[in-house]
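Q: What residues go here?
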């Protein structure tokens, strides 16, 4: 991980990171009651490369955070690439913070044998989706807040929208 902070503004930071790993094979004989743990790729290890870039600004009133990940898995001549990114922006007006977040996932995640070990049990949410959240946070005190949110999610595999309205009360130290 390489990070720089304080360039132009004390609260500004940006950076890049990378991670390389070998995911151990799941033996076909290590079956559960439902079958092998990774039927799409039994007895094979997976090579994983994760790269990331981000920028963040946390001022007394303004917060802006954006981050992107690229995940590459390779095994037995196959190659699966998944991209995920999100952004958040919020601005404090006294005890109220209106904010918005955005997330996009794209790529081969639905075919990736690590994320999706059983191709016979598909899940649309693992494919391409776009999600936005608009909300209002009310800080009751230093350890408690109430959030009101509206969150539409578009799942491209099913061409459907999931829309949620939420009220959340958080507290703790």
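A:
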């Amino acid at each position: 991980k390489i990070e720089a902070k304080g360039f132009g503004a004390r609260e500004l930071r940006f950076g890049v990171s990378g991670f390389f790993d070998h995911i151990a094979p799941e033996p076909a004989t290590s079956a559960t009651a439902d079958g092998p743990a990774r039927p799409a790729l039994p007895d094979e290890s997976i090579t994983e490369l994760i790269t990331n870039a981000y920028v963040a600004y946390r001022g007394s009133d303004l917060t802006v955070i954006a981050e992107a990940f690229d995940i590459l898995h390779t095994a037995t001549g196959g190659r699966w690439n998944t991209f995920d990114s999100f952004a958040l922006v919020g601005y404090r007006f006294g005890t109220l913070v209106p904010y918005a977040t955005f997330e996009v996932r794209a790529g081969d995640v639905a075919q990736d044998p690590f994320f999706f070990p059983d191709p016979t049990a598909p899940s649309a949410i693992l494919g391409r989706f776009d999600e936005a959240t608009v909300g209002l946070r009310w800080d009751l005190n230093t350890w408690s807040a109430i959030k009101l949110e509206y969150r539409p999610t578009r799942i491209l595999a099913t061409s459907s929208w999931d829309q949620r309205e939420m009220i959340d009360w958080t507290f703790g130290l």
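A: Context that may help when evaluating the design: The chain has a mean pLDDT of 87. Residues 52 and 97 are 28 Å apart (CA to CA).
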